[in-house]
Amino acid sequence: MPATIDLHCHSTISDGMYSPEELVAYAYEQGLKVMALTDHDDMGGLARARVAAEQLGMQFINGVEISVTWKNRTLHIVGLKVNPEFAPLKDKLATVRQGRLERAAIIAKGLEDAGISGCLEGAKAIAGAGIVTRSHFARYLVEAGHVKDIKTVFKKYMVKGKPGFVNHVWMPLEEAITLIKDSGGTAVIAHPGRYDLGRTNLHLLMHEFRMLGGEAIEVVTGSHNPPQYQQFAMIAHRFSLKASLGSDFHGPGMSFMPMGRIQDLPTNCVPVWQGWEEAKALN
Ligand code: AMP
Ligand code: MN
Ligand code: MN
Ligand code: MN
Fold first, then answer.
1. Does 241 reside within a domain?
2. Three-class DSSP category at 267
């Protein structure tokens, strides 16, 4: 039986394909009872998604996926049950989005130097009112016929050492955890299996995250394979962290998983939603 909760997905407010309302309707059709919207560095879709979810009788949880720099690497920290009106968090994310615009101009310059023009305008046009991410550049390169698919764009252009990559400095881990917690939320390490940290750094991250007040890691995510579900269930146990679950859905045909298909947490995990009012519908 697939899980009926999904605590990680994206709308057009960041790099998802569906508007907040469309995303909620889709999640409902897929049989979900509880969902969190976790756009990158932006809480602007939460109020809209909540209204849509309430109309359908679904439980909605405020979320955000914050870009963080830790030891010169980019990590993603999901905040669940954050307060979108909490000014320090809201203001900081506005600054992060400003930084994203500056980064986008540098990415475009890199691609320009590699012989591909019009990327900034192209990526911004695809992003619309939402933030500009590498996904939007990738979509532009595919739509303009430069590269055959998104996966290839990332490999050839958008990762470390390639012309469209910028070593951007995001907010420190400690600040993200503190802002999430101070707003009333719970900090979760997103897709820990994706960072390629090696055992020593992985353990160091888990320890530091826990010491700073982090509470959970994603165990079941569209970014992990089933052996990693077991691996990260063990790590959660070892570091006294709770476990989260989410598809990381971005849209049909995009990378990561569709909603409503992901399996439940391994039984040895403590769910991050344990004791939450919104999750009573799951029992
Ligand atoms: P950004 O936060 O602007 O660096 O963009 C990161 C986003 O790009 C991630 O959240 C994913 O949605 C997407 N992404 C990163 N790597 C890949 C990849 N290899 N293939 C497809 N999408 C990717
Ligand atoms: Mn994304
Ligand atoms: Mn992520
Ligand atoms: Mn995500």
1. yes
2. coil
Instruction: State CA 266 to chain mean position distance.
Output: 21
In a domain, 115, yes or no: no
The finding on whether 167 has its CB within 6 A of some atom of ligand 1 is no
Please check whether residue 90 lies inside any domain of the structure. no
- Residue with the smallest CA separation from ligand 1 atom 12 is 135
* pLDDT tens digit sequence for 16-45: 999 999 999 999 999 999 999 999 999 999
Report how far residue 262's alpha carbon sits from residue 257's, in angstroms, rounded to the nearest whole number.
8
Q: How many domains does the chain have?
A: 1
Which residues have CB less than 5 Å away from ligand 3 (the ion)?
A: 76, 190
CATH number of 22's domain? 3.20.20.140
The per-residue pLDDT for range 209-222, each reduced to its tens digit, is: 999 999 999 999 99
Span 95-120, mean pLDDT? 97
Phi first, then psi, for residue 31 (nearest 5°) are 95, 10
- Say which residue the tokens 């475009």 belong to: 108
- For residue 35, being part of any structural domain is answered with yes
Protein residue closest via CA to atom 20 of ligand 1: 151
Per-residue CA distances from 128 to 19, 106, 177, 200, 273 (Å): 11, 19, 29, 41, 33
CA nearest to 7, candidates 44, 45, 33: 33
* Interatomic CA distance for residues 60 and 50, integer angstroms: 6
Would you place residue 274 in the very low, low, confident or very high pLDDT band (cuts 50, 70, 90)? very high
| Length reported for the chain | 283
Unique residue bearing structure tokens 């039986």: 1
User: Mean per-residue pLDDT for 171-194?
Assistant: 98
Has this prediction a pTM greater than 0.70? yes
